[in-house]
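User: I'm putting together a small comparison set for a docking exercise, and I want a reference complex before I start. The sequence is below, and the ligand is GDP-alpha-D-glucose. Could you produce the 3D structure with the ligand included, as structure tokens?
Assistant: Of course. I'll restate your input first, then give the structure tokens for the complex.
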Amino acid sequence: MNRLIAISNRVQAAHGGENSNRGGLAVALSAALRESNGIWFGWSGEQTDEFTGQISFRREAGVATATIDLEAQDVEEYYNGFANRTLWPLFHYRLDLTEIARDFAGGYARVNDRFAETVAPLIEPDDLIWVHDYHLMPLGQRLRERGFENRLGFFLHTPWPPSSLMVSLPGHRELVQSLLSYDVIGFHTDEWRASFIDYITTHLGADMRGEYAHFAGRMTRLLVCPIGLDSTEFMAAQGTPAARAAEERLITSAVGRQVIVGVDRLDYSKGLQERFLAYEQLLTTRPDLREKLFLLQIAPPSRGDVASYQQIRADLNSLSGGINGEFASIDWVPVRYVNKGYAREELFGIYRASRVGLVTPLRDGMNLVAKEYVAAQDPEDPGVLVLSRFAGASVQLDAALIINPHSSEDMADAIARALSMPLEERKERHAAMLKSVVEEDVRWWSARFIAALTEGEPNEDRPPLALASSQP
Ligand code: GDG
């Protein structure tokens, strides 16, 4: 296997902790990086007075990491700015929250240049380079400009928005065009890929032949490659003291009531307000269910420097307070709303103790919580997943109760149906979903992407190389 260089905004292998999402990407990439003696390059998360390009090398859990510090202005314009205040809302169809500012775009270009400049000396001619996510879209082109002809791949972890939204971003053409410097671009679903194809054919005049986009003499494979869970690692939590303690603690405190659980980063894309409103609707229209259930919402804060995230936090405090004020009794609190993170093993126990898993984003590239909820269930007595049709996960997990998160009534009905679903139906639905969670896991995902990226790898879809050179 050629050596792999993974590049992402943050290097997750280097940072653990309760709020981190170490499970998925870190494990998948770490395995591939170890196997190929590769390197994971990214921002350290630290700020420095003046950018020096100095790289800190470390080895963690057998993975070589290389990180750089960024200046305060970089963090403000590139990370808090263009990445989190422009691209994230735009890519989640939230034009109302998308902030357009030239400083942000400038900071984004500068940091992508800084990444290219700093990682360049680490790259050997045969290395495979795999860039991750919306923070680093132009990086491939920046490397090509520096003369690198390595195989370059890019994976988008978010949705790709419809072209009618994409064109509201100043400089959208240059940005999307820069993506066509990669050899492979991966998307979670056909829908995100189709939106991308619509954009490049309509606005750039690119030409699609099979899975390949042809543009300016290059061809780029557009791959649907849904990320999976590290199901082996996650399911190994079963029976550990931490998982058991969390499960027992929740069951004991539930005193016979059914638990409905939600676990989400505190983010407007996750549809938390709509979820709380649907739950309120359920308590209003089904008085018979009151006192027989409660909603446990775990929502560790994220991106607290961005105003829209402060706003959602305030909204949720007020919504949960309102529901509790209206419906609680002396020994029943209908919403347990927790703004802190739990260790992964504890999460396993919490999912397992819950009869309903509520995953109701308004828009989500994939959503790994849905897969975690399925993986944590007891196959002999599984809970029911209620899943938004707007999460990429709904393609593979179509045996969930699929809902429209914009409809409180739809969501409330699905929760009620989940609570009374007969054991046989629960088992059937769960078995179908578990199969996909286990078979299409995170190793399957990274192996699939790396196979597409590796030149010379057997690949029937791939047109002969002569085709590429015959392009204008
Ligand atoms: C992006 C895309 C795509 C949450 N609370 C705690 C905790 N978490 C973990 C979950 C899960 C992860 O965070 C969240 O992953 P998601 O996939 O749900 O969402 P994003 O963070 O938005 O990720 C998404 C993903 O990239 C991968 O491509 O699926 O669509 O938006 O693993 O368990 N982890 C711990 N404690 C918590 O309290 N330890």
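Residues 18-19, 21, 23-24, 157-158, 227, 263, 265, 298, 300, 341-344, 347, 364-369, 372 surround GDP-alpha-D-glucose (CB under 6 Å). Residues 4-228+444-455 form a domain with the Rossmann fold fold (CATH 3.40.50.2000).
User: Thanks, that's exactly what I needed.
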